[in-house]
Amino acid sequence: MARLPYVDPNEAPRQVREVLQAMPPLNVFRTMAHAETAFRPWMRWGGVLLNDLALDPVLRELAILQVARLSPGAEYEWVQHVPIARSVGATQDQIEAIEGGDTEAPCFTDEQRDILAFTTEVVRNVGASDQRFDAVTKRLSPREVIELLMVIGQYMMLARVMATTRMDLDEPADPRVAQDSGSDSPLRPGMTREEEFVAEGALLTTVGGTLRVPVLSTPGMIGKMEGNAARLARSILPENQGTVGFEVRVKHVAGAREGARCTASARLRRVIDGRKLRFDVEVREGDRVLGVGTHERRVIDLDAHARDVTAS
């Protein structure tokens, strides 16, 4: 049983109530909401760490899971972040290896092993050794190193709140799907769409003749991700509205041969001010992930857009 009561949104001050009503009803938010003046800035900070870093999201989630595993009483953190880790491309083998304490397992890349070892030293010893620091700085930029330390620090802090307050476990709910309060957009976080396609024709490449067989190209894969996200939005928006893409962050993690039957999927993660849409996007061949990442689009007036393009 939790040592502190959970904040009731209906009884909270307005600035706290608005944030709680826009988020999944998780105990972590209803606990942190006791810090009334810090709660909204802390939520923004957490959103940046989960959405807007240069740090690879798989490395971020592996580090978070390692923090949770090394922190007694932080089961809540583990339960919530296992599905998030999967959604950004971490494998079940990697999750099970961290849970079992085997951070040298062959399912990890050399880079991932270095990040896990670095995280372990920071959690246990406060600072990383010269050996671990040098290994990580050979792989990450200074920006990414500091972002990694920010992520480790955030989830060390949360682990201590969880353990000290004896926070009750919730069912997993991805906090990245927040709907900004006050938005009247018909689009809602959690909406999904899938589209099947065959790797053929213009979607293929031999990379300038350097490959012996054609494969699904990175631009072709991204085009399918973007088109699927656009059609998801278009199916919900009013007739006079559409979307244009302005950012893609994608990793092409596996190849697909000519003729492969693939599936592009999009999940709307966040709606910002009713106009900016952030999607989780993925392409698979069966159960095998080919590409994974995020994509952002902006809602536009189709008539105004047509006039602007014609005039330019």
SSE layout and pairing:
Layout: H1 14-21, H2 27-32, H3 36-51, H4 57-69, H5 75-88, H6 92-99, H7 110-125, H8 130-137, H9 142-165, E1 192-198, E2 204-205, E3 215-216, H10 218-234, E4 241-252, E5 261-272, E6 276-285, E7 288-301, H11 302-311
Antiparallel strand pairs: 1-5, 2-3, 4-7, 5-6, 6-7
Helix pairs in contact: 4-5, 4-6, 4-7, 4-9, 7-8
Structural features, described:
The chain contains eleven helices and seven strands. The strands form two sheets. The protein has a five-stranded antiparallel beta sheet with strand order 1-5-6-7-4. The protein has a two-stranded antiparallel ribbon with strand order 2-3. It has helices spanning 14-21, 27-32, 36-51, 57-69, 75-88, 92-99, 110-125, 130-137, 142-165, 218-234, 302-311; strands spanning 192-198, 204-205, 215-216, 241-252, 261-272, 276-285, 288-301. The N and C termini lie far apart (63 Å). It is globular. Helix 4 (57-69) packs across helix 7 and helix 4 (57-69) packs parallel to helix 9 (142-165). With 312 residues, it is of the alpha+beta class. A hairpin with a 3-residue loop joins strand 5 (261-272) and strand 6. The chain has two domains: 9-175, AhpD-like; 192-311, Roll (Thiol Ester Dehydrase, Chain A).
Which structural class matches the secondary elements?
Answer: alpha+beta
CATH superfamily of the largest domain: AhpD-like
Which class of the largest domain in CATH terms? Mainly Alpha
Number of strands: 7
Helix-residue proportion: 40-55%
What value does the Rg take, in angstroms?
Answer: 21 Å
Determine the mean pLDDT: 91
CATH architecture of the largest domain: Up-down Bundle
- Count of structural domains: 2
Strand content: 15-25%
